[in-house]
Amino acid sequence: MAPPNRTARVAVLGSSVQRSKSGRPPRGRSALVRRLVLVFLVVAALALLTISFRSPTSGALHDVQGAGASALRPFQVAAERVARPFRDVYGYFHGLTTAKSENAKLKREVREWRAEALKNEAAAAQNPALKKQLAYQEGPTFPKDYRPVAASVTSFPAGPFTQQIGIAAGSHSGIRYGTPVVDGDGLVGSVTNVGPSTSVVTLITDADSAVTAKDLTTGVTGLIRRGSGDSLILDRVPKNQVVQKGDRIVTQGTRDPRYPDIYPYGIPIGRVLSVGYSDNAIFVQVQVAPYAQFGSFDSVTALVSTKPAPKLP
Prior knowledge:
The protein is α+β, with helices and mostly antiparallel strands. It has helices spanning 4-23, 27-54, 60-138, and strands at residues 146-155, 164-167, 180-182, 187-194, 199-203, 211-215, 221-226, 232-235, 248-251, 268-276, 285-290, 299-305.
């Protein structure tokens, strides 16, 4: 015989199994119901779309749509009002970012145009000087057996006792020690230091400079040296020689083939400002205003000799 509690246990298990079967629908039936509902909704949606497109502008369906739109209108207005501040904030920051970008672009363009304008102004300022140099190169006084090498001025005298400038041309352009340098008006000096692409020019206003010169009107010769201020002096002119105010002074060139001069004949130097005589002086005091504008030129021309360099013994 089975114990008394076994019968009770079987009864309880049987009742629980029956309740589970009667309380839940079968799994296959539930899936079938879901599929039928989905198919019904899809068919209904297609039917409503077809009716909406094919029906006239008025009718029951359009009335329902209008009623639905009217009912949803307050919610649309409320959503519009809620979203408006966010749109405004976004628009403000977007506009601020765009304005900053445009401002930076405009500043960059202004800098570029300003640099271009300065470049054009600098070119326009150099144009008259370049025209003078070109006129001198093509003129009758340009020395024979020489070719011009144009060079920009890269440095100016550091003080009154350093009368030198730097130019952007060197041995690669044929420049060598002693090469004469002029601007569009007259003699500037000579090269005293040469590099591959740069050179140093000692001006005729230097205290150690001496240039043999000639008065074109009277034929008087002398040495051009540094004078007081921005002027030059024509030194070594005897008192019995005649020099007049306004006479033009040029380089004399080589007088003795044994001692060739670094400057060819006829380079303009300046015009006589005054002629003074002193009882105690041996020579006439001749003051000369140079043609070259030593404090303002931006470019010069080096006169490179086309003759072969003399052979050393």
